[in-house]
Amino acid sequence: MGLTGFGVFFLFFGMMLFFDKALLAIGNILFVSGLSFVIGLERTFRFFFQRHKLKATSFFLGGVLVVLLGWPIVGVVLEIYGFFLLFRGFFPVAVGFIRRVPVLGSLLSLPGISALVDKIGESNTMV
């Protein structure tokens, strides 16, 4: 859990410091290795390399590779797109949980946010 947490911290900090490629590279390596340690190598490979998730995996890992090669902004855009494709099935569960949290649930009920959250909450298929 520590590796994954530090990975997210370094990714966030790297973006806050105007896409510092060294911090983003460290964050990517820590996040992917932390994920592997948390859920295991076999389950990590099964998650990333399912037939219907190959497009998402290629964007996410391609973004990691582009960041490591020194193009941080392009790499982060590819990673974010791949991340949303990979974890699209988890978003309805997360939205349902957040709606039950007292303060956050009322924020998600605001007029402008509610339509967006409803769209995210009901999308559970990969395109």
List the helices and strands and how they pair.
Elements: H1 2-16, H2 21-39, H3 41-48, H4 54-69, H5 72-86, H6 91-100, H7 102-108, H8 111-122
Family: Belongs to the GOT1 family.
Protein name: Golgi transport 1Bb isoform X3
Main location: Golgi
Query: Average pLDDT value?
Result: 89
Distance between the termini: 31 Å
Beta-strand percent range: under 5%
- DSSP summary, beta strand count: 0
Given as residue ranges, the uncertain stretches (5+ residues, pLDDT < 50) are: none
* Alpha-carbon Rg, integer: 16 Å
User: Which structural class should the secondary elements be placed in?
Assistant: mainly alpha
Give the fraction of residues assigned to helices: over 70%
Number of helices: 8
Shape: globular
Q: Profile the largest sheet.
A: none
N-to-C series of helices and strands: HHHHHHHH
Relevant terms:
mainly alpha; 80% helix; single chain; 8 helices; globular
Walkthrough of the structure:
This protein is mostly helical and 127 residues long. 80% of the residues lie in helices and 0% in strands. It is built from eight helices and no strands. The mean pLDDT is 89. The chain crosses the membrane at residues 6-35, 56-74. May be involved in fusion of ER-derived transport vesicles with the Golgi complex. One of its GO terms (cellular component) is endoplasmic reticulum. It is a multi-pass membrane protein. It is found in: Golgi apparatus membrane.
